[in-house]
């Protein structure tokens, strides 16, 4: 950010930007398609910047989310109140987080009245966190937040986590002040010693101490512009971060239940795998403990669970299923960015979606230059469409497919349709 | 035999189009060399369709495009004598299908909500080398709310079973290929929203165990590298995929025995 680099200016110090000159109208005088185009191109640029090749990513993450619940969160600059807006976005965040990092764990803390409270413990169960967030809506926001207390509490929770996991704290800070019992520099030092990365999202204005914490621990500090930007900033935290410094790698023992499928051929199955049993995940709750033959048995101790992933309460083995691990594999084999080219006559269709590339005689862009009163109108001037080519398989795709492949699909259809490149690189 | 299979598939496609006027159809074929959009055809040449009097034009178009496309695909396969052997490129075909669905959804997004689904009709076994492609396709389908159904002739495919389970689709292994059309019409024609009201073949319990990277055997308890998430069946000092060395948790063994021997002797 701007602090360390004196030559980089704040926005009010830089020159006058004539932003209206960047916008051009199309045939019907509409700006929509142009705006969508600009947005898509900005997305591509950002995606291309992010793609830095093979870095070590922290896949098993232990993340604490600290939500500021002080008096300033009742301000209504984010609708309906800052607090409710943040909670809603956090629900989306929790959902996406477990979607993308299935073997990670999350915990929620709040800070108010100069103290911090733990709402949920570090757990891998999505539903519990979402329920807790929904119950938080009734919480009254009062008092002053305490950055140090919440960081210390999160640190106590993370200290005992194994060394191979990526330890993170995400703070959603809406206040401009903090009320701390001791020296926060000591907290920062112990955070650094424990390899904990703190990222802060500011909801009000830039606070210097937050900047320092984020910088020293290797996290990021951003201040939001509006609620869409807040959503984007929160969802950026969903991606696994690059490993800071040295992370100890080790082999983690994990169990894969769900073998030996039930054979429906009429013979009675005498193995204990499918006998009706109570599941250990609900055994303490009075209402929802169901007995049934469905579920997963821990391969080490045989206890039954309804859902995966879960940590076995009996023997401590982490139980996952193969697709959970496979969700993170696409980070390990990222696709190289596609090369932008002008459309050639031979390629008429997009390879991925079979869309016809329209030669843009019908989409003539009227460029109106007020000073010289010249305008180019309905010249059969072929504005060549930009298409994207994959380096490996040389197939051409359109802009929408490029974004779709990069963000969602994570495989190039061209490479997967070519017998040479379709085989996996490893092994 | 192949002719009968193609006839059944075309009849099934036409049956789907007949159900409602806003239904859409796309057919993709794949073999071990390439994948191809059979309908809508990407050729750009308009062929004359021989439709019988009273036949809906679109049925004749589907019929003609599919047969022509399949003919080209098979001819390409026979003339191309490349030595690269590969499994059937089903992953690539499914990726193209998902991109097509995504594009159609974008084009119709304001007026209509699509309820997309993909039916895979296959007779090939699993390709372990295309595992990544398959899993990416399944997760994308789950995210985009696309239901993947599978109709297997001849062999079973564990990967496709997992895919159908992840996306909430129907997996069926057909006992006899002669009855293909009947199975397609009875089981796969109804849309996912009304499947709960129909009695369908029971879901198979999917084997979700992972295969270890060293022997490709299914394991119950495995060791997972924390860096690259590759699975091994035995504890080892180094990960073969990402070449990271693992820290052993045991303290170093002090060589006391040699000292004792030296003293005695």
UniProtKB/TrEMBL annotation, chain A:
<dbReference type="GO" id="GO:0006289">
    <property type="term" value="P:nucleotide-excision repair"/>
</dbReference>
<dbReference type="InterPro" id="IPR046349">
    <property type="entry name" value="C1-like_sf"/>
</dbReference>
<keyword id="KW-0863">Zinc-finger</keyword>
<keyword id="KW-0862">Zinc</keyword>
<dbReference type="InterPro" id="IPR007198">
    <property type="entry name" value="Ssl1-like"/>
</dbReference>
<keyword id="KW-0805">Transcription regulation</keyword>
<dbReference type="InterPro" id="IPR012170">
    <property type="entry name" value="TFIIH_SSL1/p44"/>
</dbReference>
<comment type="similarity">
    <text>Belongs to the GTF2H2 family.</text>
</comment>
<dbReference type="InterPro" id="IPR013083">
    <property type="entry name" value="Znf_RING/FYVE/PHD"/>
</dbReference>
<dbReference type="GO" id="GO:0005675">
    <property type="term" value="C:transcription factor TFIIH holo complex"/>
</dbReference>
<dbReference type="GO" id="GO:0000439">
    <property type="term" value="C:transcription factor TFIIH core complex"/>
</dbReference>
<dbReference type="GO" id="GO:0006351">
    <property type="term" value="P:DNA-templated transcription"/>
</dbReference>
<dbReference type="Pfam" id="PF04056">
    <property type="entry name" value="Ssl1"/>
</dbReference>
<keyword id="KW-0804">Transcription</keyword>
<dbReference type="Pfam" id="PF07975">
    <property type="entry name" value="C1_4"/>
</dbReference>
<dbReference type="InterPro" id="IPR036465">
    <property type="entry name" value="vWFA_dom_sf"/>
</dbReference>
<keyword id="KW-0539">Nucleus</keyword>
<protein>
    <recommendedName>
        <fullName>General transcription factor IIH subunit</fullName>
    </recommendedName>
</protein>
<dbReference type="InterPro" id="IPR002035">
    <property type="entry name" value="VWF_A"/>
</dbReference>
<keyword id="KW-0479">Metal-binding</keyword>
<keyword id="KW-0234">DNA repair</keyword>
<keyword id="KW-0227">DNA damage</keyword>
Automatic annotation (TrEMBL), chain B:
<dbReference type="Pfam" id="PF03850">
    <property type="entry name" value="Tfb4"/>
</dbReference>
<keyword id="KW-0234">DNA repair</keyword>
<keyword id="KW-0227">DNA damage</keyword>
<keyword id="KW-0863">Zinc-finger</keyword>
<dbReference type="InterPro" id="IPR004600">
    <property type="entry name" value="TFIIH_Tfb4/GTF2H3"/>
</dbReference>
<keyword id="KW-0804">Transcription</keyword>
<comment type="subunit">
    <text>Part of a TFIID-containing RNA polymerase II pre-initiation complex that is composed of TBP and at least GTF2A1, GTF2A2, GTF2E1, GTF2E2, GTF2F1, GTF2H2, GTF2H3, GTF2H4, GTF2H5, GTF2B, TCEA1, ERCC2, ERCC3, TAF1, TAF2, TAF3, TAF4, TAF5, TAF6, TAF7, TAF8, TAF9, TAF10, TAF11, TAF12 and TAF13. Component of the 7-subunit TFIIH core complex composed of XPB/ERCC3, XPD/ERCC2, GTF2H1, GTF2H2, GTF2H3, GTF2H4 and GTF2H5, which is active in NER.</text>
</comment>
<keyword id="KW-0805">Transcription regulation</keyword>
<dbReference type="InterPro" id="IPR036465">
    <property type="entry name" value="vWFA_dom_sf"/>
</dbReference>
<comment type="function">
    <text>Component of the general transcription and DNA repair factor IIH (TFIIH) core complex, which is involved in general and transcription-coupled nucleotide excision repair (NER) of damaged DNA and, when complexed to CAK, in RNA transcription by RNA polymerase II. In NER, TFIIH acts by opening DNA around the lesion to allow the excision of the damaged oligonucleotide and its replacement by a new DNA fragment. In transcription, TFIIH has an essential role in transcription initiation.</text>
</comment>
<keyword id="KW-0539">Nucleus</keyword>
<keyword id="KW-0862">Zinc</keyword>
<keyword id="KW-0479">Metal-binding</keyword>
<protein>
    <recommendedName>
        <fullName>General transcription factor IIH subunit 3</fullName>
    </recommendedName>
</protein>
<comment type="similarity">
    <text>Belongs to the TFB4 family.</text>
</comment>
């Amino acid at each position: 950010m701007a602090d360390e680099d004196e030559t980089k200016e704040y926005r009010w110090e830089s020159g006058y930007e004539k932003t209206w000159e960047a916008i051009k109208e199309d045939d019907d005088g509409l700006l929509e398609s142009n705006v969508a185009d600009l947005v898509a191109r900005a997305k591509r640029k950002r995606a291309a910047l992010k793609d830095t090749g093979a870095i070590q990513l922290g896949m098993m993450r232990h993340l604490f989310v600290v939500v500021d619940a002080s008096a300033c969160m009742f301000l209504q600059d984010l609708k309906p109140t800052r607090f409710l807006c943040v909670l809603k976005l956090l629900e989306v965040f929790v959902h996406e987080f477990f979607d993308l990092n299935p073997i990670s764990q999350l915990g929620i803390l709040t800070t108010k009245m100069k103290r911090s409270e733990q709402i949920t413990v570090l757990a891998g169960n999505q539903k519990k966190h979402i329920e807790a967030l929904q119950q938080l809506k009734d919480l009254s926001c009062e008092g002053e937040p305490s950055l140090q207390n919440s960081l210390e509490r999160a640190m106590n929770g993370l200290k005992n986590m194994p060394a191979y996991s990526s330890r993170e704290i995400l703070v959603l800070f809406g206040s401009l002040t903090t009320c701390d019992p001791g020296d926060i520099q000591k907290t920062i030092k112990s955070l650094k010693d424990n390899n904990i990365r703190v990222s802060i999202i500011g909801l009000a204005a830039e606070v210097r101490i937050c900047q320092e914490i984020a910088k020293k621990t290797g996290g990021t500090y951003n201040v939001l512009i509006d609620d869409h930007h807040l959503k984007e900033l929160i969802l950026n935290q969903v991606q696994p971060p690059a490993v800071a410094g040295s992370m100890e790698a080790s082999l983690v023992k994990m169990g894969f239940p769900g073998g030996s499928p039930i054979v429906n051929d009429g013979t009675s199955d005498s193995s204990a795998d499918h006998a009706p049993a109570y599941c250990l995940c609900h055994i303490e709750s009075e209402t929802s403990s169901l007995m049934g033959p469905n579920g997963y048995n821990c391969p080490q101790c045989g206890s039954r669970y309804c859902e995966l992933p879960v940590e076995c309460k009996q023997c401590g083995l982490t139980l996952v299923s193969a697709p959970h691990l496979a969700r993170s594999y696409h980070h390990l084999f990222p696709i190289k960015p596609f090369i932008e080219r002008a459309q050639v006559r031979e390629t008429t269709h997009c390879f991925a979606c079979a869309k016809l590339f329209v030669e843009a005689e019908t989409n003539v862009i009227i460029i109106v230059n007020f000073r010289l009163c010249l305008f180019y109108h309905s010249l059969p001037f072929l504005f060549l469409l930009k298409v994207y080519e994959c380096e490996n398989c040389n197939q051409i795709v359109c802009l929408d497919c490029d974004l779709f492949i990069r963000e969602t699909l994570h495989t190039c259809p061209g490479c997967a349709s070519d017998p040479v490149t379709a085989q996996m690189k490893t092994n | 035999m192949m002719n009968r299979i193609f006839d059944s598939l075309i009849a099934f496609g036409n049956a789907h189009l007949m159900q409602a006027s806003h239904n859409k159809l796309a057919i993709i074929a794949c073999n071990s060399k390439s994948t191809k959009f059979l309908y809508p055809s990407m050729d750009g040449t308009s062929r004359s369709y021989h439709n019988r009097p009273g036949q809906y034009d679109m049925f004749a178009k589907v019929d003609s495009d599919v047969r022509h496309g399949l003919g080209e695909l098979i001819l390409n396969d026979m003339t191309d004598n490349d030595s690269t052997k590969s499994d059937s490129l089903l992953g690539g075909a499914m990726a193209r299908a998902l991109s097509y669905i995504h594009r159609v959804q974008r084009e119709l997004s304001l007026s209509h909500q699509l309820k997309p689904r993909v039916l895979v009709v296959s007779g090939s076994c699993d390709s372990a080398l295309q595992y990544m492609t398959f899993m990416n396709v399944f997760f994308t389908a789950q995210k985009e709310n696309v239901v993947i159904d599978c109709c297997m002739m001849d062999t079973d495919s564990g990967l496709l079973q997992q895919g159908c389970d992840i996306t909430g689709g129907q997996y069926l292994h057909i006992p006899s290929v002669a009855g293909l059309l009947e199975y397609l019409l009875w089981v796969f024609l109804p849309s996912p929203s009304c499947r709960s009201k129909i009695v369908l073949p029971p879901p198979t319990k999917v084997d979700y165990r992972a295969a270890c990277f060293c022997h490709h055997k299914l394991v119950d308890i495995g060791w997972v590298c924390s860096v690259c998430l590759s699975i091994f069946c035995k504890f080892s000092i180094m990960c073969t995929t990402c070449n990271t060395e693992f820290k052993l948790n045991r303290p170093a063994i002090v060589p006391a025995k040699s000292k004792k021997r030296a003293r005695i002797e």
